[in-house]
Specification:
Layout (H helix, E strand, L loop, with lengths): L14 E5 L2 H4 L22 H5 L23 H15 L3 E5 L2 H4 L10 H16 L3 E7 L5 H5 L8 H17 L5 E5 L9 H5 L10 H25 L4 E7 L3 E3 L4 H24 L6 H7 L11 H9 L4 E5 L4 E3 L8 E2 L6 E2 L5 E2 L5 E2 L1 H15 L3 E5 L8 E2 L2 E2 L2 H19 L4 E4 L22 E3 L11 E3 L1 H11 L6
GO molecular function: beta-glucosidase activity
Family: Belongs to the glycosyl hydrolase 1 family.
Keywords: Glycosidase, Hydrolase
């Protein structure tokens, strides 16, 4: 049902746009000096996550056994000008994309950057600016150099702090005059459930030991603070944020046991990484959380200088992805479980789910925005949100009303949150152009406003075609959210 007083709410200058990730759309995995990343070693198909979670996976590429859809993506590396032109046609005010670390430092541990990689992203940035689109850059988005995962063991190794600092310094020094918004790590808290993507660690390299995950997080927190320091010294007005997955979490009932379990899940997953990066210090519940997972704060390699850096250079805003909510039930022996964005949960009987089992909860986005803003009192930015669905071409256009309805309801929830007093910077729906799914490596799980003719087996013309949602979103942006 349409809520009252949700019109004419979005502030002037609101950053309407869309979001992508280099490893999911660029392709060109071996072009112009680019090195291999962890994404280049992730196979495609629904078995992707189980393969990465297996005991014997060690980042080896087996072309005979698996396909690697990230290698080709949607060939954005060659067609970025065509794609950005389509974004401009929709009226994007901003475009969130990531820089592939391995285009700048192919191994990750070099001293000197690859100029061809920097030149490529300069072209993307310049193309955006020509159309009046603000670039929003994610410095590391699920694609750390494969060498750093295989030879250094991933982010549990403190040496990666210096490698990232060098990388971030090169990127920020090159682009700080053209870019106003950055984020340091994509969905950094995803490692709680799946450290392969963001920390480059699998079971064969220590992902089964929570101490390694906690140490990797600490090293990333320090690296993030160093990036903030570099950025603010270059330009105090440069806004550098963190980025987390946020899944609004409800207790399945009023049983105090489930309520307490919900509190703990919120602390561990929704808040821990943001607490450190936004507040600049470890939260009070840290020690108990670590002990609950078999380690302790004293076991981690943390220096006084690290803690000073965290405190001195917190992030400027909170970016987050929101796709679904989750319920908690620890009092039922075998609760009905559902799938999710790298995490599952208990089925909420009041919600419907997508084709992939993700529960759809726009009201949960309003709650998330209020919880994050009131907790941190810093601007928030919805940098991912959307509906993964199988699209079918009917006639001359994909009639994706299901996507329009999903996005409309979430935009209405954002409007409500703004009226609640939330300082919301912008909205960049995920996969504004169809791209390779991070969780399954599929093309058939589509989010975009723009259809890309490519199937799960790599067949298709790769032609770009606007969907019905393309023209709907254009009107949303033109009206600054008044026409939904």
């Amino acid at each position: 049902m349409k809520k009252e007083n949700t019109m004419t709410t979005f502030p002037k200058g609101f950053l309407w746009g869309g979001a992508t990730a280099a490893n999911q759309l660029e392709g060109g995995f071996d072009q112009a000096g680019k090195g291999l990343s962890v994404a280049d070693a992730m196979p495609g198909g629904k078995q992707r996550m189980s393969v990465l979670a297996s005991n014997d996976f060690n980042w080896e590429i087996d072309d005979k056994k698996f396909i690697y859809p990230n290698h080709r993506g949607i060939e954005h590396y060659e067609r970025f000008e065509e794609d950005i032109k389509l974004f401009a046609e929709m009226g994007f005010k901003c475009y969130r994309f990531s820089i592939a670390w391995t285009r700048i430092f192919p191994r990750g541990d070099e001293k000197t950057p690859n100029e061809a990689g920097l030149a490529f992203y300069e072209k993307i940035i310049d193309t955006c600016l020509e159309y009046g689109i603000e670039p929003v850059i994610t410095i590391s988005h699920y694609e750390m150099p494969l060498v750093l995962a295989k030879e250094y063991g991933g982010w549990k190794n403190r040496q990666l702090i210096a490698f990232y600092e060098n990388y971030a310094s090169v990127v920020l020094n090159r682009f700080y005059k053209k870019v106003k918004y950055c984020m340091t790590f994509n969905e950094i808290n995803s490692a709680f459930h799946f450290p392969a993507l963001s920390q480059g660690m699998v079971k064969s390299s220590g992902a089964g030991d929570f101490k390694n995950i906690a140490q990797a997080w600490h090293n990333q927190f320090v690296a993030s603070a160093k990036a903030v320091k570099i950025g603010h010294e270059l330009n105090p007005e440069l806004k550098i944020g963190c980025m987390i997955i946020y899944a609004t979490t409800y207790s399945i009932d009023s049983d105090p046991v489930n309520q307490a379990a919900t509190m703990v899940q919120n602390q561990e997953f929704n808040y821990y990484c943001a607490d450190v990066q936004v507040r600049g210090q470890y939260p009070a519940y840290t020690e108990r959380m670590l002990r609950n997972h078999g380690t302790s704060f004293d076991e981690l390699d943390i220096t006084p200088n690290d803690l000073d850096l965290l405190n001195t250079y917190p992030v400027d805003y909170v970016g987050f992805s929101y796709y679904m909510s989750s319920a908690v039930n620890v009092t039922t022996e075998q609760p009905d479980e559902i799938a999710g964005n790298l995490l599952g949960g208990v089925r909420n009987p009041f919600l419907k789910a997508s084709e992939w089992g993700w529960q759809i909860d726009p009201e949960g986005l309003r709650i998330a925005l209020n919880e994050l803003y009131n907790r941190y009192q810093k601007p928030v930015f919805v940098v991912e949100n959307g509906l993964g669905a199988k699209d079918e071409v009917v006639g001359s256009m994909i009639q994706d009303d299901y996507r329009i309805n999903y996005l409309r309801e979430h935009i209405e929830a954002m409007a409500e949150a703004i009226q609640d007093g939330v300082d919301l910077m912008g909205y960049t729906p995920w996969g504004c152009i169809d791209l390779v799914s991070a969780s399954t490596g599929e093309m058939s799980k589509r989010y975009g406003f723009i259809y890309v003719d490519l199937d799960d087996d790599g067949n298709g013309t790769l032609d770009r075609t606007p969907k019905k949602s393309f023209y709907w979103y254009k009107k949303v942006i033109e009206s600054n959210g008044d026409i939904l």
